[in-house]
GDP-mannose 4,6-dehydratase
Amino acid sequence: MKIALITGITGQDGAYLADLLLKKGYEVHGIKRRSSLFNTDRIDHLYQDPHEKNIRFKLHYGDLSDSTNLIRIIQEVQPDEIYNLGAMSHVKVSFDTPEYTANADGIGTLRLLEALRILNLTKKTKIYQASTSELYGLVQAVPQSENTPFYPRSPYAVAKLYAYWITVNYREAYGIFACNGILFNHESPLRGETFVTRKITRAVSKMALGLQDCLYLGNLDARRDWGHAKDYVEAMWLILQQDQPEDYVIATGVTTTVRDFVKMSFNEVGIEIEFKGEGIDEKGYIRSCSNPAYQIEAGKEVVVVDTAYFRPTEVDLLIGDPTKAKTKLGWEPKYDLPSLVKEMMAADVEHFQKEKVLKDAGYFIKNQFE
Ligand code: NDP
Ligand code: GDR
């Protein structure tokens, strides 16, 4: 039985990857951070009681900023494969917490690679590094491939640039089977609520149900190559199953603006919206609503640009070229953007329908101390 260790197992990708590896027969270990509230929502369905025998899913407390902790866990687990998904992954927040981001996202990767050297696991353990399309940053050329130069535009991307190169360096210097997956944006119903896609699908669902009035967004012109996290974790696994350790771009090859993502989300609930104005004066209004379940009047202002969500330096355009992954890994995404939006909207509408039932019955308490 192969043994995998996943950092960031409580995140979106960690949850999908753990599920995939368990289905493939792996013993899966994950590192979770201590928090004052439960933070294992996304993986609770995978939980196995540690008091039982022969369990294949185990969680360890840890943090990428703590080398001794990482060394101890790796020594205990003796993993065949490490997937380093743990990171402070929010680009905008990285401008507020640049030093912490560098520590977790950059030096955290170094700590894992060094642990393999210290424990003499350089020949046994393969390692996947969660690299990102944010490395491309300021557009040099499109579509972006494994050969496109990097130009990071945030403390997050700069930290990930260090992680990318230290992964390459340890591969070349010590022969570690260490690979970068340069993944473009990938989303799902498990996506963190403050990333733009999930922020949109949640808000649109709430607006359709009369639980929210307006959605405040930043740059509507940004273009992203959005795929589904389920497809992308499959690629992570494939990358570590090859004969040679290499780096791969994982993307759909299609790019869409934030504005169009908003329109597509509203369309899922039968609502058409139009945008008027430009720049910070741009607003989105309801044009029509064909779904009788939702009483939304035409002309209502539903999207407003708020400069608080602008980044000091923005990444305007991402569109990936996944040719290498398709040819060498045989990777093929099953989802396109419309099917992704459909799944995210369906999940959020269902969630907020339940919340509305509670609220209508007087049970919905926003803050227990209010
Ligand atoms: P999430 O933000 O959903 O998950 C991040 C995970 O990292 C969480 O489990 C989080 O724990 C954990 N984490 C944060 N800080 C630390 C730390 N100091 N030590 C240990 N664990 C930590 O990210 P995604 O699942 O979306 O992304 C997975 C990885 O892939 C990240 O590295 C991200 O940067 C990268 N990536 C993501 C892309 C995407 O579009 N989703 C695209 C390209 C790269 P907690 O739950 O406690 O917060
Ligand atoms: P990104 O994702 O920065 O690409 O990083 P995010 O969804 O945060 O932003 C995408 C684009 O949307 C614009 N935007 C907004 N973004 C947020 N979060 N909130 C808003 O209100 C808003 N309005 C407009 C942003 O300016 C940006 O251009 C994600 C993360 O998962 C990273 O960890 C990962 O490495 C990259 O994707 C690939």
